């Protein structure tokens, strides 16, 4: 039984070690799950920030588009205004030329008025200078406005291009983060499933270990009871043997006393001591009987019986059941 008990203890130690190892693995899985959840939260925050930035850039791109459209409308309006001013200028120049031509005719007809011709020439020169100056100023203003509008359109186009580029970058980052998020979700679900399986397996193994331990305790108690029963039977056998040895010794002494009594001469019968035996049985525990042998001594004096001496009690143990044959 000692070897079996050692084996059972060894199995119990192994089960305890496996249980501790499973608990450590469960703690590690819980820690990994917490790390993955934190990483998932961080990635979610980054995704939200990227979405907010993308919305802001989209708004800026829309504003830049609106500004470009406004500048295009302004450019078209300025071009129309320039065409209108050029047309007006051309009409004014043509009218001035017609006036100068008419004045030229009047001057040719009136040869006697040289001062008027000089005045007309001076007026013509002034009008031509004014027209040239106005045309030059209009062209310069047109060029300046067109350059400003071109620069603004270029800047807006560059801003729009940068906004589109950043929007594409954020879109790619969002797609990448979405893929990472899905991957992390899959990993999280897998880890949670593994943790549930580990917990269920640990619960099943713990229940199995508890059942095995209870069964081992029952077997140990059964072995203890059986050992106690064997010890009790052995003690009973020892008691029976002791009782038999005492009884045999008593009968041997009785037989020796009878032999001695037979060898005594007849004339000494007056001093003969007669022994009587009486058996008193009493029940004992555990199915055994306790018997006392009472020996009475009777002295014969002048043919009369003298008072008997005190009885001698010898305890004997007899089994209540028949003894096995040896």
UniProtKB/TrEMBL annotation:
Q: Which GO terms describe its biological process?
A: intermediate filament organization; regulation of chaperone-mediated autophagy
Annotated Gene Ontology cellular components are: cell projection; cytoplasm; intermediate filament
InterPro entries of this UniProt entry? IF_conserved, IF_rod_dom, Intermediate_filament, Keratin_I
Q: Name one Pfam family in it.
A: Filament
State if Lipoprotein is listed as a keyword.
no
**Coiled-coil regions listed:** 5-106, 160-233
What is this protein's record name?
Glial fibrillary acidic protein
Source species = Pongo abelii
Q: What is the lineage of its organism?
A: Eukaryota, Metazoa, Chordata, Craniata, Vertebrata
